[in-house]
Design brief:
5 helices, 5-stranded parallel beta sheet, 155 residues, Flavodoxin_dom, globular, Rossmann fold, FMN binding, alpha/beta, binds flavin mononucleotide, Flavoprotein-like_sf
């Protein structure tokens, strides 16, 4: 089985750490979206898409790429790191993938550290930022491994 992970991790490489763990566990190819030029996904049986969350959204670069891909019948999964670490940020991309005929095999999210003042003055984000420190951590790594094992089992 041939698999590929495409990710965007422009802030602190939090998502890259998770992408690497998933790729190791599933023996997958791994591409930072920065390095994507001509991407031929024809030969892959499973494709993972990951991003950090920036202002409530995955990177626009990932949406732009997905828009160009022929995903009909492809097995896919989606993952993210964010300050809150919630899976709801994955929903928009999952909907788009499904609308292109892809088969969603799973969704994973965990916290990724951030410093609130890097992007906002809102007080609430100071608290969120503090709670995110140290993530992704060993427990997040274990959960990521468990997630990818379940994805592989479902194929
Ligand atoms: C510009 C910017 C905007 C962010 N917006 C959000 C947000 O809306 N919600 C959230 O939960 N985290 C937010 N974060 C925190 C990031 O999602 C978190 O640090 C993530 O792990 C970054 O991933 P990366 O290091 O792979 O780029 C934001 C971080 C930055 C730098």
């Amino acid at each position: 089985m041939k698999s590929l992970i495409i990710y965007c991790s422009d802030y602190k490489k939090n998502t890259e750490v998770i992408a690497q763990i998933l790729a190791d566990k599933m023996d997958s190819e791994l591409i930072n979206i920065r390095d994507v030029s001509d991407l031929d996904i024809e030969s892959y049986d499973l494709i993972g898409f990951g991003s950090g969350v920036y202002k409530e959204s995955f990177s626009p670069k990932l949406f732009k790429l997905v828009d160009k891909l022929n995903l009909a019948g492809k097995n896919v999964f989606v993952f993210s790191t964010s300050g809150v670490g919630m899976k709801f940020y994955n929903s928009r991309l999952i909907k788009i993938l499904e609308s292109k005929g892809a088969i969603n095999k799973g969704s994973f999210a965990c916290k990724g550290s951030f410093i609130a003042k890097d992007f906002t003055n809102k007080k609430l984000f100071n608290i969120m930022g503090r709670l995110s420190q140290g993530h992704p951590n060993q427990r997040d790594f274990k959960e990521a491994e468990g997630f990818i094992i379940r994805v592989l089992d479902s194929l």
